[in-house]
Amino acid sequence: MDFDLDRALVLLVRTPAILRAWLGDLDPVWLHANTGAETFSPYDVLGHLIEGERTDWMPRLQRILEHGESLAFDPFDRFAMRQWSRGRAVQDLLDEFTALRQRNLDVLRDLALQRADYSPRGRHPGLGTVTLGQLLATWVVHDQNHLAQIARTLAFQYLDAVGPWREYLSILPRA
What we know:
CATH class: Mainly Alpha
Strand content: under 5%
Helix content: 40-55%
Structural class: mainly alpha
CATH architecture: Up-down Bundle
Shape: globular
CATH topology: Four Helix Bundle (Hemerythrin (Met), subunit A)
Strand order of the largest sheet: 1-2
Number of domains: 1
CATH superfamily: dinb family like domain
Radius of gyration: 18 Å
């Protein structure tokens, strides 16, 4: 499927509500669970998504529009949330994510981008040349990737408890 901004917005607008329903009153045992050292818990994923709203998607889009390939994107710190989110209530993080996402989508809508506007190029510090359309498509898939990560992390907590059914549960690693 080719990138389409209207279709993308249908998914991007839903992520805050999905996370609020999923994480809002989740027991801390689930909220802070992970799948091993240096992996993200659902709480970490939420902080990571906030960091993306602050420093990644729209700042990079603006960099493409203003500078094209002449000025590379700032590197994205995938773990920055571990400093500023530590100890914050999940409800506060959900509120912040919702507000940032709303603001970013409002700005994006105000740009009134058309298909022809997806071709300007920017420069990613690790990947090289990328297009504005690729950046926007990646934003959508990034959300979906982390929603799947939350599902896998939660399922992983019952890795052994499911017993032999593990063979039928593709969300879990095979025995």
